[in-house]
Design brief:
Elements (H helix, E strand, L loop, with lengths): L4 E5 L6 H14 L6 E5 L5 H8 L4 E5 L16 H6 L4 E4 L2 H5 L5 H13 L3 E6 L3 H5 L3 H12 L11 E5 L13 H18 L2 H6 L2 E4 L4 H8 L6 E4 L6 H8 L5
Parallel strand pairs: 1-2, 1-8, 2-3, 3-4, 4-5, 5-6, 6-7, 7-8
Helix pairs in contact: 1-2, 5-7, 7-8
The chain binds 2-phosphoglycolic acid.
Length: 251
């Protein structure tokens, strides 16, 4: 049985004060929640939010990290720095990193390996653009991102990996994939995991859906066989929109 995992990605929003306020509201509202829940504030707010979350059941996530342990990498944040401020999960390969900042599969794979080596959990994001979908390449693109992103991992390391399928055309656009289409891709991802790793990995891997998830569509998405959670952007920026997503079973 896969435990649902709902994650909020705050992107480049929130000052420290705003982040602390929101984290405090979430910790209160979700105090008795049994699902796995994570929030990923911007780097500048991680330490302060860690203080707020430390006695809660909400995990602290980061939105990205540098590809090496330390060194002359102006502007980057290392895995050790993330651990130092209490981060336990890191989002890697988000489509905004891939498309705006031109991160490629090899770089993302370096980060995935480094994060796992340092005992962080990894949410690896994959997803096709609208053009790729229209050209019939969606499965190919996702397969490559998955195989390359997970290259060189040991079987047991996969227990600390979560996949987020986020079709790029659905992110921040208000357009959500039809639950059946999303489920089809999730099932395809499981098939690839089964071939590349093992049946056990394919069956136990948490695969989140991301892209304009909101209160009005979350339940239908979560009811699909292969969708185990959500990576939420815009709707994670307010307690009144994020809490009902986490509590989708009460909607
Ligand atoms: P969105 O973002 O919910 O605003 O579409 C999702 C994401 O980028 O993870």
């Amino acid at each position: 049985m896969r435990k649902p995992f709902i994650a909020g990605n705050w992107k480049m929003y929130k000052t420290i004060k705003e982040a602390v306020e929101l984290a405090g509201s979430l910790a209160g509202a979700l105090a008795s929640e049994k699902k796995k829940v994570m929030i990923a504030p911007p780097f500048t707010a991680l330490a302060a939010v860690h203080e707020v979350l430390k006695d809660s059941n909400i995990l602290l996530g980061a939105q990205n990290m540098g590809p090496v342990e330390e060194g002359a990498h102006t502007g980057e944040i290392s895995v050790k720095m993330l651990k130092d401020v209490g981060v336990s999960v890191v989002i890697l390969g988000h489509s905004e990193r891939r498309h705006v900042y031109k991160e490629h599969d090899h770089l993302i794979n370096e980060k995935v390996k480094l994060a796992l080596l340092n005992r962080l959990e990894v949410i690896l994001c994959v997803g096709e653009t609208l053009k790729e979908r229209e050209d019939g390449l969606a499965e190919n693109v996702v397969e490559n991102q998955l195989i390359n992103g997970l290259d060189g991992l040991q079987q047991k390391q996969l227990d600390s990996v979560i996949i987020a399928y986020e079709p790029v055309w659905a992110i921040g656009t208000g357009k959500t994939a039809m639950p059946e289409d999303a489920d089809k891709m999730h099932s395809y991802i499981r098939k690839i995991l089964g071939k590349r790793f093992s049946k056990k990995t394919a069956e136990s891997m948490i695969i989140q859906y991301g892209g304009s998830v909101k209160q009005g569509n979350v339940r239908e998405l979560m009811n699909m066989e292969n969708i185990d959670g959500a990576l939420v952007g815009g709707a994670s920026l307010k307690a009144e929109t994020f809490v009902p997503i986490v509590q989708f079973d009460k909607n």
